[in-house]
């Protein structure tokens, strides 16, 4: 996996392993990628589908995302699925030929957070394509067998690669306790907004309103099951009018808002639109710093406003 090194690539069955290396701003090259030795609990996976995430684009455009800075050449990619080619001596749950989706984050499995089941917060997390860990946009990777999950026959490899972003939406809905009595507002109809919408529907929410600045994205959201859409602007001065539009579209109150954009305006809109005692959940990586109206929000919460990060 990301344990792989740079050097000259590794020969497997006469084939040189190659990967997409980020070398600098807007500088991406296909170069050899040396795999680490196959450990007893590892598997070697031939990649068949790798999604391009917003984080990959951030690294390509700016060589950084929040506090994660690319300081040396790095292989991109973390949304992935493939076919098992080789298994370690201690692996009994997978065999060559199995189609799998890969969990891209390797936690320590020993700290208190991991023991509590919150492995995503592990301080020793090694996550595909998060500096300095290499990613999975390669011909082959080596990864722990326990983090490779067999795909049902009716799930394609492309769908398997999308399990990782879908898990973001599922996690958000779990954090916000979405259910049959929860009306949901989603700020942003990009990929994460859409998977959060789909997850919320699966969790039983009766009504979803989704907002965005782009007509095409809103049409996609509508086709995927949004009850109503609201087109908004980037102008902060429009928040009051847009909140009124959101309330009209929702019909009932907004119980939970998911900000899947992470701008000052989107968070401010979510906080204004959500009913007193409701929940606002920030999903994904937005701007490093945001200015939001905390005091007005606190005045409406009576100590019950929930924040999920």
From TrEMBL:
Its cofactor is Zn(2+). The keyword Endoplasmic reticulum does not apply. SMART domains: PKS_ER. GO terms for molecular function: oxidoreductase activity, acting on the CH-OH group of donors, NAD or NADP as acceptor; zinc ion binding. PROSITE patterns: ADH_ZINC. Pfam families: ADH_N, ADH_zinc_N. The keyword Zinc applies. Residues 24-302 form the Enoyl reductase (ER) domain. It comes from the Eukaryota. Keywords: Metal-binding, NAD, Oxidoreductase, Zinc. PANTHER family: SORBITOL DEHYDROGENASE. Belongs to the zinc-containing alcohol dehydrogenase family. This is Enoyl reductase (ER) domain-containing protein.
């Amino acid at each position: 996996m990301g344990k792989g090194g740079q050097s000259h690539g590794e020969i497997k069955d006469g084939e040189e392993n190659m990967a997409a290396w980020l070398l600098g701003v807007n500088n991406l090259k296909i170069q050899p990628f040396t795999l680490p030795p196959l450990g007893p609990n590892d598997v070697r996976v031939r990649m068949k589908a790798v999604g391009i995430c917003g984080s990959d684009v951030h690294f390509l455009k700016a060589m950084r995302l929040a506090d994660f800075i690319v300081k040396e050449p790095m292989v991109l990619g973390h949304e992935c699925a493939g076919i098992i080619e080789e298994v370690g001596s201690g692996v009994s749950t997978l065999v060559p030929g199995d189609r799998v989706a890969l969990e891209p984050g390797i936690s320590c499995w020993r700290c208190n957070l991991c023991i509590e089941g919150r492995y995503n917060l592990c301080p020793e997390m090694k996550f595909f394509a998060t500096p300095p860990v290499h990613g999975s946009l390669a011909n082959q990777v080596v990864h722990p067998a326990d983090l490779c999950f067999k795909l049902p026959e009716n799930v394609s490899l492309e769908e398997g690669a999308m399990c990782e972003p879908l898990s973001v939406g599922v996690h958000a809905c779990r954090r916000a306790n979405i259910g049959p009595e929860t009306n949901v507002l989603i700020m942003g109809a990009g990929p994460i907004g859409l998977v959060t919408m789909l997850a919320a529907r699966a969790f039983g929410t009766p009504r979803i309103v989704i907002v965005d600045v782009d007509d095409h994205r809103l049409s996609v959201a509508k086709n995927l099951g949004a009850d109503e859409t609201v087109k908004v602007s980037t102008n902060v001065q429009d928040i009051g009018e847009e909140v009124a539009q959101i309330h009209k579209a929702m019909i009932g109150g907004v119980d939970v808002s998911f900000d899947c954009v992470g701008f000052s305006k989107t968070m401010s809109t979510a906080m204004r639109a959500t009913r007193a005692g409701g929940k606002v959940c920030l999903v994904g990586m937005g701007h490093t710093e945001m200015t939001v109206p905390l005091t007005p929000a606190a005045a409406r919460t009576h100590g019950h406003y929930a924040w999920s990060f």
